[in-house]
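thread: overnight batch results

M.L. [08:02]
morning all. the overnight job finished for the chain we discussed friday. pasting input first so we're all looking at the same thing
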Amino acid sequence: MKNIVIPLLLLLFSCSSGSRYTIIGSFEGDFVKDGTVVRLYDMYDESVDSVVVENGAFVFEGRVERPALRYIAVDGRKRIVVCEPGETVVTFDEHFTPYLSGTELNGKINAVNNYVRSRYRRYMRRTERARDELSGYRLDSALTAIGKEIKEDISEYYGECVEENRDNIVSGYVMLNWAGMLDAHEIDSVLGTVAYLPSRELPPLVAIRNRKHRAERSAEGRPFIEVIGADASGNPVRLSDAVGKGRPAVLFFWASWCGECLDDTALLKALTDRYGDEGLTVTGINVREESDSDFRTAINVLGMSWPHIHVRDNAATDNYAVEELPFVVVLDGEGVIVRRHRRLVEAEATIDSLMAAHGSGQEIPTPPVTEARGRE
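M.L. [08:03]
and the structure it wrote out:
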């Protein structure tokens, strides 16, 4: 019996020790001081470990069942590393750019980073040369062509990397970088055609994919998306009660704590005074409030006399792909999205043109609707 137990213990110890990882990090120069806390997060932004910088360096040690992507975070800045069996060395330069070595998968990520950096340096050299040699329209055309060429080069390279690493987590790292260059249906195509892709499991990638789908559904040329909430008196109200009735409309996404939102209310008042009698419909979409009372107080204090829909969850901002407040969506009389703007001052010219066409009875040109493709 003793002869059986000892080999079994050795086997268990061997399997356990094989999953141990060590990450040794350091910083070029002294831009990170001793005593600074360095944190290790998983892809859900849950804390995995934390250590303190000593003599310009730090060490993370732990175990993983299989290689996993993790964030190394210092003073709010995050970079990705693979926790995999073995000893990984990561050196950060003064721009917090990581250089990885020592383990297989981190070596592959470093190669990806090096290629992209080389393309960026090439882009900078070519644009500098173009600025020296060209001007005006020729310069603008040259810069556009250079940027397009470099982007296509990197995108093609990312595609090759995903295929080459379809059986390991490096594909996830590449997809996190590549997804910003793709539309939602292109992301779906990659995820749907590669039989095994660890990147499917990454919450940040899923969030990017879903955000892009929402942006396509609320793009210019698409019909408005319903918003359901409560008015200033607490009564149930729907956006469809006000828009798509033959009158141009403005959706103003705002919150009482948002300084820029409050700044924009003066211009919104001016627009309602200018076009209210001519049929312009304004609806405030109040979101991300801490309390209902803040919403009602802001309306009364600022004299925001137009109708409002107070939404307690994230449905409205998600559906309209609103990331920052304030945000403005301009609709035609049929409820089709004409333009999306970050600030109201940017939307003023759109509203002026829309109302001029509405007043003259002209057909208001809207961007073509893109048919939805892929899976929702």
